[in-house]
Each structure stands twice: as structure tokens, then as C-alpha cells.
Design brief:
Order of helices and strands of chain A: HHHHHHHHHHHHH
Oligomer: heterodimer
Number of domains of chain B: 2
Distance between the termini of chain A: 22 Å
Largest sheet of chain B: 6 strands, mixed
Structural class of chain A: mainly alpha
Helix content of chain A: over 70%
Number of helices of chain B: 9
Largest sheet of chain A: none
Number of helices of chain A: 13
Radius of gyration of chain B: 18 Å
Order of helices and strands of chain B: EHEEHEHHHEHEHEEHH
CATH class of the largest domain in chain B: Alpha Beta
CATH architecture of one domain in chain A: Orthogonal Bundle
Shape of chain B: globular
CATH topology of one domain in chain A: MetI-like fold
Helix content of chain B: 40-55%
Distance between the termini of chain B: 32 Å
Strand content of chain B: 15-25%
Shape of chain A: flat
CATH architecture of the largest domain in chain B: 3-Layer(aba) Sandwich
Amino acid sequence: MIKILRTIVKTALLLIAISLVSFLITFLAPSDAAQIMLEAQGNLVTEETLSVKRAELGLDRPVLVQYGDWLGGALRGDLGRSFKSGKPVRQELLNALPNTALLTIVSTVLSVILAIPAAMMSAKRKNGLLDGALGAVSYILISFPSFFVSLVALYIFALKLGWFNVIGGDRIRDAVLPIGVLSITTAAWMTRQVRSLLLKEYSKDYVFACRSRGAGEGYIMRKHILKNCMLPISTLVGISFASILGGTLIVENVFNWSGMGQLVMKAITNRDYPVIQGYVIFMSLSLLVLNALIDMLYLIVDPRVRAGTEVAGER
Amino acid sequence: MVAVNNVSFSIEEGECVGIIGESGSGKTTLASLIAGFERPDSGKIIFQGKRLYCGQSRTARNQRRNMQVVFQHSASSFQPRSTVLDGVCDGIRYKESAGTAQMRDRAAKALYQVGIPESYFQKKCCELSGGECQRVAIARAISGGPQLILLDEVTSALDVSIQAQIMHLLHDLQHEMSMSYLFISHDIAVVAGLCDKILVLKNGCIIEAGTPRDILHNPKEEYTKQLMLSVLTL
């Protein structure tokens, strides 16, 4: 119970620290939100109109006052209003959330489905032809940035083969390519990580002992090795989820998928600070909650962690 | 590098053969070859009248099911999360298709045979002492009724009183179940107490062989005398 309370307090303090840092970074950015908004609305930009707009947006106050104001609102669930649309930031984020959640959750599940069997095959045939081929494909996919893989996927599957819409959209069918890119690039990374975990487990004495009793490799893998690797694999799944959530920022923009990534990219262009700040807080909160859940999973499943005798090198 | 060279010997049904030698003399390599973990560059090993295969082929696995290995550090030879009873069930599981209840009954019987009480059945193997763990490992080895058990330095990590208990246990089990043992140790006194025949291994070659009486009372090789002397000076 104390551990859970400690985790909650730590999460809250971290969130405040992250929000302060992100607030200061956006404040230090060289461009002026008021000027960008006036220009976008086609208004004449003069010193007078600028100061009126700054006062209207609350940007004329000291930065710490602005932050305190924002934090007070955030604690009540009010993340402010978008400079651009004038709508509540919370509403804007919630509207974009389902699309991003769809990409993130489906991509995470798919990457796990692809990575674990691939890692099992790779580990079972260590240094074999299949292991080499899977390793090569994984390294290629890990090396390429996601926007490049996205563009290649668009070129092949949308432009050349015509299977998907080139300009993207918000139908389920339009989610196939972004999900494909996110899950394949994440699966490539996860395959290498899970393979290492499995190989480490493979070298343990009990596996050798199982083999000496005539157990088949498939049985040893399924019943012993994979079972013992499930906790570290759950950590990898958490990291993958975070990586995919971050990756949506690029992929949603390439595929014109209107999720949170696209929303924040527009907000960055328009210096829409409240939306940027809301996005940062949402992302941080998601990742911190995810981490806390994984920690709790360890506490529940692994008696050694519960007893405070965690085995070194296992996590 | 040649670890084992020109080695030839036989183990009869119900016989206990001991292999002694210093560290690096090739004892464990010989055990690995017999257990099918390593492939010999030349020569052959015959088990139950058939050439012994190594690797992960079905034939090799089937042959291995009639042969069990007990390791020096038995605690690490158990699945970290398995209980004592489940760990012993592993000795039966791979050999034949018995139902869970039947398998547990047989595992319990094997555990009683080695003197492990029922209160230990649900403990994790890592919670046991060295001697208890070695007993559970022996129970696992005998649970499937193997023809041959390879005992690789099984008493080396135990203190003297526990060593004696384990030796008595192995002796009783062998008489009860008519199994063959290949007992590997660097301790000639331990080997002599249990085995019908002793092979002295040096640099991968058998330099002397005979009954414990022959080896202890009339050693021919200087190396054997030194091995005996090392025990006496201890």
C-alpha cells in the first residue's frame, strides 16, 4: 500500500515538473503566438494590435503567473482554450484521442503478435539462416526513421499499387497503412530485444537440465523460457506502447490521420501554447500511468520483487 | 584441443562405475558425450544395444529419456518458479504420457524415497538447502525409472555429513531399483564407497581401471597414488 501511495505521489510530482519545463520551453520559443494569430486571421500587425491580442491571450503577464494560472486550471481539469480555435483544449484533445488510441493500441498488439514468434524462431535457430534474415530485416527497419518508412509505404501501397488513398483520411481503411508502419517498425525493435531475453534464458542451467531429460526444444521454449521471460517482455510492451504513442506524431501527419499527433503539429505551427501544453501533459500522464501499472504488475506477479529481493539484471 | 581420447569402457545393468580425475582431466566432457550433449569427433557410444545419438532429433531425445543426469549445483537445474513436486514431475513428463494426478503420485513416491517430507512439496526449489535440493534432484532423476543415471560431482558442493547421507541414499536406491550409475568425482574416497568399478582419467585418457579394492590397495600409476594422497592429507 505504501509503495502504491509512493508511486502516486512520485507521478504527481513528475507531472508538475514536466508541465513546468514544457511551459518554459514554449515560452522561450522565439516566435510570438499573438503575431502568428493576427497574420493567420489576415489582420494588420501593429504594436497596438499585438499588445491587444497579447492581453486577450494573457501573454502579457509574467511567465510564472501564466504557469500558475494554467496549473490551477489543469488541477480542476481545465487545460485552457486553444488560441487558434477558441475551443477548450480538453475537448480538442478528447476529440482527437480515439483516432490516436486506435493507432497506438492496434499497433502495439500487432507488434507483439509479430515480434514474439519472430524472436522465438530467431532464438531457436541462433546464427542460422532464418535468424540472420530476421536480424537483417529488423536492423534495416530499426535504422530507418518512421517518416521514411511511412513515405516508402505510401509510395508502394498507395501510389503504385493503389490499394489505399494517397491523401489519407479518417476511415478505418485509411488506418491500415499508419498501423502497418508503426507496428512493423516497433516489431523489428521488439524482436531483437525479445530474442536477447530468450537467448539469455536459453543459457540457464535448468534449460540444459530439461534437455538432458529429453524435452523437445518447442516444449522448453513454450513452457519454460517464454513463461520466465513474460515479466521483462511486459516491460518491453510498455516501452513499445510509449514509442508508438510518440511515433504517432510523425505518422499521423504523413498519412493525414486526424489524431492527437496531427493536432499538436498544427498547434506547434500556430504556437498554440495551451494545446501544446495539454498534449505534453496528456502524453506524460499516459506514460507515467503505464509505467506505474507495469511496476504494479511486477509487484503482483513476481514474489522476489514483492519481497524486495529483485534479482539483479532481470529488469 | 582433444579433451577425451581413446576411452573405452562398459557399464553393466545395475552396475556403478566411478570416474575419477583432477579438474581438467576430461570427466565432464566424457559425461557430456554420454549424455548426448556433445558429438564425439570419432568413435561411438552404445546405449541399450543401440548407437547413442546426440542433438535434438526425436531418436536422441527418446534415448535420453532413459538416462538422467544429476548436476553438481542442482538448485540451478530447476525451473526457478517451479515447486518441488512440479520439478520432480518433470522427470516423468518427458518420458511418458501420464495424467497429472498419476504423475504427481509418482513424483510424491520418488520424493518419499529420497526422504523429502510432504511439507516440502509446495516449496520452491530455490528455498531448499544444498542437501535437500540434491535429494530432490535425485528424486527427479529416479522418478521416470531410468536405466542409467549420470551423477556429475553430486557431492562436491555439500558438506561432509550431507555427502555421507547422499552417498547412502544413492547406494540404497541403486539396490532397490537396479539402476546403473556413472559417478563422476574428483574425490577417490567418495567414489570408492559407492562404485563397483573405478576408472582413473588423466588428460582425457583412462590410465588405470579396476575395483575399488584394487585401486585403493594396489594403485599402479603414480597419478592414482597422488589422488589418494590428496584425500589422505585432507
